[in-house]
């Protein structure tokens, strides 16, 4: 859909045409289209969306658009929206609203729904409880396939997903039946005969990243959430799990590159907030670099005697930084994907040590040849070869150990990535370099 | 399940117990459990898995386990496996097998299936065609809900997903009906009356990453794949899309940290392959650093006169590298998530310039104070403040521009990350530093 045409039609009040366009579009694209409208046009366009789609479109909108719409809604419109909105989307909305609007919304929902909302709002941020929805299909173990299908026909349209059905006994989850089973099995079979009893579930307090990982591992469409007493309280659906995976990955990449993670997109974030998100780590790393500075200052005599020494510093520190960040990236990602654990530390270190030796020899020889060709200086070649190999071994071992210890200490391993590793490795490599230089070249 | 107990039971030939254990476990966990077995125990254990689960477990195994099992299978076992394996898993298997085993497998499948396999094998690597499956539910537009349900009951068990049904007319896709619609709508309605006609689809040649992104954007469970003539040839399911998202992210992170991406896990990769995956970029970056080296060598006189100059080099280059990688990370991720496009280049550069100014001033002032306190040297404080601010502006602009141009030139933007940006920014920051120094301090 061409945005300009749509906006022109809206401006010319061609509401019938606008309505027809909105009718054939899917809810995601409508939300994207509406994002470009001015506030007044936004509420106008939103009112032209057919009733059955409106809540879905609303759920796809940015929170600033949602807040504006809620402010503009009549009581009746608000009531209709809240009736159609799924529980997880309702909670997402409330988290963004100012207090007076929260009160207004809570006035419009039933006591039962209000209690559910308050419970979910109280779960820790980034927990399974905070992203779950409370609408799911529950059945009894004596229900037959035919009865289950009839029950879904009656109530299913108000459930976020009907593709996994939960068999409860005294509010406890005792089995799972898929819609595929219901659609392909004999009508008279009871749930008890069909249900899968080896259930993968999480608790309300399970971290959302861990929850999302279970979807990828077990190819799930939905995952039941139990409270601390073991009662079933909701489900997390695959669409929310997918969002968590994408968001958590972005967060990891940002942390790994000295950025405070932001939930907004690049353009949604203001210049001031961008600067704020970047200055913190830069300051820490800049001030940490004073250690390297102090080390260099101690060796003034050495490079005053042999100025060529200085020109190799960036090559040496960069190579060290790159080697360290290679190792830390592999370990950080391995930890995130549950492929590496703290108890593997000795295996990892031993592996990195051997890799470092191989890499070190290849790089040292290449650099040695380069120095011989360019400077015809065998002593310098040997100095750089030794420093380079030692730096690479140190960098790779620091690079793999720090994320593992971070994990052990419940600190996000992503912090132990390129920027911090580089700063630490810098100090080490400069120390190695000048130590080797003073010994090898007989300086003080 | 405790692995040791399982292995003990297997060794003691307690097959009945082993079979019961395998019966209650899910296929993913069985595959993980079997991964630790020796070859001979592996085939033994695999034969104890109940028929209805065996193909699913097989599909979850590593390719080396799959190859071994295919070699050991009797003709009858191979036939059974191929009957139960979905098309996408069959193709995955064939891609890993040596030629003689491929021939053996193709001998066991029907002509029709063989043709399908060959077609899929010919699609480009990492395309939607290469990850799709050909088993899906297709219906006619005149089919009623009741007829559709009966059809699924009859054939659905052999389809990878039945939750999205495709309405075809002369092999062309004209609509989509969800299982939720079928389960909640009136029995007599025809597909034509129910179906969604605004269809999101991909072609066989669409990149798998782009395909996967559509799942996240539109909350899909399956996505139809059309061939170049517009005929429907298969579907991609959410579980495969999720795997693509996780794998592509790992690949991006690896490329962004100077690693050749590897499809195997950290421990599955040998020391030699780890070294090979790392040496290439390290060599390129190390040799690029000779540019910086040459620049430094030109200013020998300057730091011979004022050795203190040298000690600030790592702080300056590291800060430049970190600033550049912050910007490049945000742009690379924004490009991957389709939030930033090449035509935004001026908006991005202008934003980065303003962010750089803010960040530059804060860092320059902090560093100026530090230098005044430590060295009581106002000239040095001014020199560092100017160099730092100029470096930060340069780094942020290079950091945001390079990934955008890479995208434009169809090169993976992830290459333009920390390591390469650091190397380029190093040369620039050293040049700025010594230029400012020679002018400010009146050196040559």
Automatic annotation (TrEMBL), chains A, B:
InterPro entries in UniProt: CBS_dom, CBS_dom_sf, Mg_transptr_MgtE_intracell_dom, MgtE_N_sf, MgtE_transporter, SLC41_membr_dom, SLC41_membr_dom_sf
Role noted for this protein: Acts as a magnesium transporter.
Transmembrane segments: 355-373, 379-405, 417-436
SMART domains in the record: CBS, MgtE_N
Tree of life domain: Bacteria
CBS domain sequence ranges: 132-193, 195-251
Keyword tags: CBS domain, Cell membrane, Magnesium, Membrane, Metal-binding, Transmembrane, Transmembrane helix, Transport
Oligomer status and interactors: Homodimer.
Membrane-topology annotation of the record: Multi-pass membrane protein
Protein name per its UniProtKB record: Magnesium transporter MgtE
Matches recorded under NCBIfam families: mgtE (TIGR00400)
Cellular location(s): Cell membrane; Membrane
Species for this entry: Sellimonas caecigallum
Family as reported in the entry's similarity comment: Belongs to the SLC41A transporter family.
Pfam families reported for this sequence: CBS, MgtE, MgtE_N
Primary location: membrane
Keyword Metal-binding: yes
């Amino acid at each position: 859909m061409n945005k300009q045409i749509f906006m022109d039609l809206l401006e010319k009040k061609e509401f019938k045409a606008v309505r027809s366009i909105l009718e054939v579009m899917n809810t995601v694209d409508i939300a994207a289209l509406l994002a470009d409208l001015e506030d007044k046009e936004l509420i106008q366009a939103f009112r032209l969306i057919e009733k059955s789609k409106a809540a879905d479109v609303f759920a796809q909108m940015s929170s600033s658009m949602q807040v504006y719409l809620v402010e503009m809604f009549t009581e009746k419109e608000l009531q209709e929206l809240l009736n159609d909105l799924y529980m997880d989307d309702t909670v997402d909305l409330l988290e963004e609203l100012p207090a007076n609007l929260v009160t207004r919304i809570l006035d419009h929902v039933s006591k039962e729904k209000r209690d559910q909302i308050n419970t979910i709002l109280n779960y820790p941020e980034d927990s399974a409880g905070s992203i779950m929805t409370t609408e799911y299909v529950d059945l009894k173990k004596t229900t037959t396939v035919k009865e289950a299908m009839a029950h879904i026909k009656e109530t299913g349209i108000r459930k976020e997903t009907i593709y996994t059905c939960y068999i409860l006994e005294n509010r406890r989850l005792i089995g799972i039946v898929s819609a595929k089973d219901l659609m392909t099995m004999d009508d008279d079979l009871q749930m008890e005969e069909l249900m899968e009893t080896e259930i993968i579930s999480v608790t309300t307090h399970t971290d959302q990243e861990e929850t999302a990982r279970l979807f990828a591992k077990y190819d799930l469409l939905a995952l039941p959430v139990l409270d601390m007493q073991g009662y079933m309280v909701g489900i997390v659906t695959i669409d929310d799990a997918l969002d968590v995976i994408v968001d958590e990955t972005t967060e990891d990449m940002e942390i790994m590159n000295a950025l405070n993670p932001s939930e907004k997109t690049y353009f949604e974030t203001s210049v001031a907030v961008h600067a704020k998100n970047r200055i913190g780590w830069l300051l820490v790393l800049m001030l940490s670099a004073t250690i390297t500075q102090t080390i260099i200052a101690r060796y003034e005599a050495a490079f005053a005697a042999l100025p060529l020494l200085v020109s190799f510093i960036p090559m040496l520190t960069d190579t060290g930084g790159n080697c360290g960040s290679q190792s830390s990236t592999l370990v950080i990602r391995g930890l995130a994907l549950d492929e590496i654990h703290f108890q593997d530390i000795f295996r990892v270190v031993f592996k990195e040590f051997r890799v470092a030796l191989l890499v070190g020899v290849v790089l040292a020889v290449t650099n040695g040849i380069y120095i011989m060709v360019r400077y015809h200086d065998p002593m310098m070649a040997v100095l750089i070869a030794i420093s380079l190999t030692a730096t690479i071994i140190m960098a790779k071992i620091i690079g793999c150990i720090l994320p593992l210890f971070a994990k052990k200490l419940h600190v996000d391993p992503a912090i132990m990535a390129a920027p911090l590793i580089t700063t630490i490795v810098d100090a080490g490599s400069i120390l190695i370099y000048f130590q080797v230089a003073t010994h090898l070249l007989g300086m003080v």
